[in-house]
Amino acid sequence: MKVLVYTSITNNHDNLKLQPTFKEDAEVEYKAYLDVPTMGKTILPYNWAIHSAVELFKEDKRNCQMPKILSHMYTDDYDCSVWIDGSIILKTSITKLIKDNLTTDVDIALLKHSERNCIYKESWDCKHFNLDKHELINEQMNFYKSGGYPEFHGLSETPLIIRRNTKNVVDFNTLWWSILCRYSKRDQLSFDFVRWVQEMPVHYIKGNIHNNEYFKIEKHKVLREHERK
To answer: Which of 109, 150, 168, 174 is the most buried (most CB within 10 A)?
Structure first.
């Protein structure tokens, strides 16, 4: 199976991290999509192939998100992809990660949210911390309610996503991206709505973002720098 691990970092939000190597991952490839500010202020680890980040949007976050959401456009030559946010450092091999979690009955594997199980609750949190425009989030939640999307239907966390390259995943990605472009840039406010609409089964990785056997999370570079001020 041909596997790609990939990430995107824009506006120097994180440092591109050197990932550990494992013998069983000898054929796994790594690609990073970086913009000029990020490339100019980080040491580029040897095991990443560097590509230019998307520059289609005014918002750096959306430029970063395009490869994350539309995985099929960046991983077409691969059987399987593993997206990792810039804050992630792997602890086990990609081979083990995929074998343990991408079960035969699903095409997507990721984490359950560590604190909440409802998109509507997540939207309140996003507004509380001013993570996006309140009116845009409200409009999105009203759209969900008008379509009958239920409360407490689960909430996924998306710093790491394993996907097969299948038509179902292409359809899922396309709808996810369309919702993201129309409404809030917070991708966790749209993933599970799309999962519900398309009746897409997913596998949840054991553990949570703070405690699991496969990876650890570092604070985003911009948060660390803010805390030092």
So the answer is: 109
Q: How many CB atoms lie within 10 A of CB 168?
A: 15
**Does any domain span residue 56?**
yes
Q: What DSSP letter does each residue of 5-39 carry, written as one string?
A: EEEEE-TT-SPPPPPP--GGGTT-EEEEEE-HHHH
Under 8 Å CB-to-CB from 144, ≥6 apart: which residues?
Answer: 119, 120, 193
What CATH number is given to the structural domain containing 54?
3.90.550
Contact 139, 77 (CB under 8 A): no
**Mean pLDDT, to the nearest integer, of 134-153?**
98
Nearest-angstrom CA–CA distance, 52 and 40: 12
Specify the pLDDT at position 162.
98
**Residue 124 clears pLDDT 60, i.e. is over it:** yes
For the chain, what is the domain count? 1
Residues 6+ apart with CB under 8 A from 228: none
Whether pLDDT at 229 is above 60: no
Adjacent-strand bridge partners of 88: 217
Structural domain range at position 58: 3-220
- Residue 49 DSSP SS3: strand
- Which segments of the chain does DSSP mark as H helices, in order? 36-39, 60-69, 71-74, 94-101, 119-128, 134-146, 167-182, 191-197, 221-228
pTM of the entire structure?
0.92
Q: Is residue 161 part of a domain?
A: yes
